[in-house]
Design brief:
Elements lengths: L5 H17 L7 H12 L21 H23 L2
Length: 87
Amino acid sequence: MNGKSDGEKQMIDGLRDEVRRLGLIATDMETATLLTAGRVLGARAASLCLGTVDGLTQEKIGAVELETQERRMFEIALDTIVASLSV
């Protein structure tokens, strides 16, 4: 948390404590907007998210793991699209 004031650091630590207390394992800002837009427009919408940074430790996953999981998500997305077309 370089460059942060003591107040900002305290706020961030408080948010992390709240995340732990609630048992959340991930947060994502973009998905809420995508799903809301889909609902407003009457369109089907979905989101696949890959946690690449640990929200508590800020540790990032490695390049090989990232590539493996992105490929897996791509396959899930394609399988889902194909399955939705046959309904």
